[in-house]
Amino acid sequence: MATLFVMQGRDRGKRYELRPGYPQTLGRDESNRIQLADNEVSRRHAEVRDSLTSEGEPGGYCVVDLQSSNGTYVNDQRIGEHYLRTGDRLLIGRTLLLFTETASAAFEHLSNPVDIIGTKRMAAESRIVKSMSREQGSMLLAPPSSSDSPWLARARSNLQIMYRTALAVSHTLDIDQLLQRILELIFEWVEADRGCIMIVDQETGELTPTSSRNRQGEKSDERLTVSRTILDYVVQNKEGVLTSDAREDERWDHAASIVQAGVREAICVPLQGRYGTVGVIYIDTYTPPAKLLTQKSPNRFTEEHLKLMVAIGHQAALAVEDTSYYSAMVQAERLAAVGQTIATLSHHIKNILQGIRGGSYLIEEGLKVGENDVVRRGWRIVEKNQERISNLVMDMLTFSKEREPDLQRADMNETIADVVELMQTRAQEAGVLLQFSPSADVPMLLFDADLMHRAILNIVTNAIDACEKREAARVTLRIDYNQTEKTTDIVVEDNGEGIAPEDIQKIFSVFESRKGARGTGLGLPVSQKILREHGGEIIVSSIPGTGSKFVLTLPAKLASQPVTSETLRG
């Protein structure tokens, strides 16, 4: 399977699957298979086609520019037609898409040819000549000592800064924290007075200052001014620059910004990643213009500093891209989850509204002809659907909020009895015998009675639905209080249709319902969430065709016990 994933642009986070055998156009017009919300994209900008080998097998995909106004770019090169490979970056307007294709079967089992031989055979053919611990290997990353040669000291210093940079970029997914840490490392290594990192804005394409720093202990009343000339050169040429005295470099406009800003030495390098330039790093030694004629100091920046800054910039750019890709993936998952939620809830609410509309129609017709039986039948339909939408709203509220239960002194027998009384009418209508045997051994406990009522209600509702239209259908409830283990088990058993072993874990997934149009797929996940908030769990056992048993087990906290932060954890 091949996909195009939007990494930058207004459609960031969207993923498009490429269908083999069908040319797929990309553009701004709604007639395109892949419609992009980008003003710099033509109405019909490009087309992705799949190709065939000489044997008629799928041979990959190629992208063709459809004479667009701004062109189509693959890996920063303008193309007319280009065969795509996994990892290629497709730039259309300001929208950057990443092409990926599932690896062929030939590469799926590369471990098969690997054999592990016995120690006797190894001893006959080879021997260990040197071993080294992790601590010994890490000595290469230690700071240089006074006994090291100048060359070795510089090499060790450079290796250490790159190692620390690699650690910094791998330990955070927050771009602001990442860039600030990069600047801190640079200032530890280079005698810079000021520095900043600018990131390219995905919407405007302009460089936006994201992080800045002044050397600790040195204060300046003047703002950090960066030469537009230097920035433009670095971004356009994708090269780092070192300016020792910008007035002597013919590439810079010496009548422009550098002289006025008072910059004597500066290093500016691009943040060049896999998919292009994502920003720049700029550092300089600051001397106010008024002191330029009276203050002279040796050069602080060298070509070696420039080389290492370019390497640091590349590492930082890779991290920025990875973080952006991760954010886009999270956004895509959120959009998918929101879409699924809206679609599922809309379906259930539509069914409930249809029921209310049908009941209202019966009430209206009954009133017209004075038939009270018809009115009562219509009102029962309306009441039933009002209860359904009320339960749906309560489940949505319970599931959407993270909360700690309000532990209060309550009687578990009474809570279960309330549920049974509430559900008796529904059980009778379904032809189900609903029974509860209270336990005199259960003391007053600490739990959230409202939440526990909701959790038990959902389980009992499912049990009744599972038994409906079965002979001698019954649902029984009981409490098992274990004083030794300090647990309370609420057991709900039915002799309904049962659950297949492979489906038991699925029933606690959101919107996973076995009731068809009648179920919301929220009841069991809500019950599980409530039990876990109480420090408990739901244990399910079932035999298909025979019935199911749900055990709601939770810590038995006596009402005499004070409520603390440890109460929920047992």
Automatic annotation (TrEMBL):
Residues 344-558 form the Histidine kinase domain. It comes from the Bacteria. Residues 24-79 form the FHA domain. It catalyses: ATP + protein L-histidine = ADP + protein N-phospho-L-histidine. Pfam families: FHA, GAF_2, HATPase_c, HisKA. The keyword Phosphoprotein applies. Keywords: ATP-binding, Kinase, Nucleotide-binding, Phosphoprotein, Transferase, Two-component regulatory system. Its EC number is 2.7.13.3. Transmembrane segments: none annotated. The keyword ATP-binding applies. InterPro entries: FHA_dom, GAF, GAF-like_dom_sf, HATPase_C_sf, HATPase_dom, His_kinase_dom, HisK_dim/P_dom, HisK_dim/P_sf. One of its GO terms (molecular function) is phosphorelay sensor kinase activity. It is an enzyme of class 2 (transferase). This is histidine kinase. It comes from Anatilimnocola aggregata. The lineage of its organism: Bacteria, Pseudomonadati, Planctomycetota, Planctomycetia, Pirellulales.
